[in-house]
Amino acid sequence: MDKYVLITGASSGLGKETAKKLAQEGYRVFAGVRKQEDKEAVEALNPNIEGVFLDVTSDESVNCAFEKISEKTDKLYALVNNAGVALAGPVEYLTIDILKKQFDINVFGAIRVAQKALPLMKKGDARIVNISSMASYGVFPFVSPYCVSKRSLDMFFNSLSVECKMPELKIISIKPGVVKTPIWNKSLDECEKNMEFLCEEGKKKYEKEFAFLTANARKNNDKGLEPAQIAQLVSKVLRVKNPKLSYNAGNDSVFARLLSFLPQSFVNFLIKFGLKKRMGE
Length: 281
Ligand SMILES: NC(=O)c1ccc[n+]([C@@H]2O[C@H](COP(=O)([O-])OP(=O)(O)OC[C@H]3O[C@@H](n4cnc5c(N)ncnc54)[C@H](OP(=O)(O)O)[C@@H]3O)[C@@H](O)[C@H]2O)c1
Hints:
Elements: E1 4-7, H1 13-24, E2 28-33, H2 36-43, E3 49-53, H3 59-72, E4 78-81, H4 96-117, E5 126-131, H5 144-163, E6 169-176, H6 183-196, H7 200-218, H8 227-239, E7 246-249, H9 251-259, H10 264-278
Parallel strand pairs: 1-2, 1-4, 2-3, 4-5, 5-6, 6-7
Helix pairs in contact: 1-8, 3-4, 4-5, 6-7
NADP nicotinamide-adenine-dinucleotide phosphate is lined by residues 8-15, 32, 34, 54-57, 82-86, 105, 109, 131, 133, 176, 178-179, 181-183, 186, 224.
């Protein structure tokens, strides 16, 4: 098969698993990584994988990556916007730097890469797959930066799909629930570090909820879907003739979608009530 796919954030988790799966199926995969050791590790998975250095927050890095890609091909079949981080904290005390970082990677990064990819997608059938999240549906307390970033990602790309003068381009959002990947521990380490920088007043106000939620979220490392299940879904949306605009992956994601049909005031009540109950208040 001579179909080229670029996957961002392919050093671990869903990106790495997807690179492996697509390469096994015969796609030629450009796997976005940021470290030499990750390039070597991902290339060792399959000869169809070529690691490319790609930091989605840097114009220079993205330009260099596309120079490398253009040396190999002038036609990209698919871009999988997968690179992402999850940042959290109480809105009342969130620093603007945290918000900027969240958006730089999850939203502006995906747009930056897509803008470079689109000229290579002009000829014939092409696809952009965004790894969004069930968080895109809304309220998960203390994870607002992540939720808002995923909703924004979906909205930006939905606008693109309406505006774009490429009738054969298909843009698909995959919204996984919890998947067993390193994202949980990485994010929680960062969140706990950020909590340390909160003022005394902020710590006092939210310490209890935050400690409870972070302890719970650490357990997500060991539960939820396998990354291979998301890789399988990406493979499917690249293969089927008419993929849907949006896919939920996992019962928790389906549940989040169903909740989103209810009135916001009722959803907020349920979430507040549920949190208090689980915390034994
Ligand atoms: N795991 C879940 O439960 C879950 C659920 C829903 C959605 N998702 C989404 O799935 C995607 C992949 O996450 P994951 O769970 O597989 O976590 P992961 O293993 O932590 O993977 C995140 C990837 O993003 C890369 N990345 C971070 N910042 C980057 C940057 N500035 N430029 C380029 N790459 C960058 C990381 O590279 P480095 O190794 O170089 O940092 C890593 O390869 C994310 O968009 C996440 O929001 C995950």
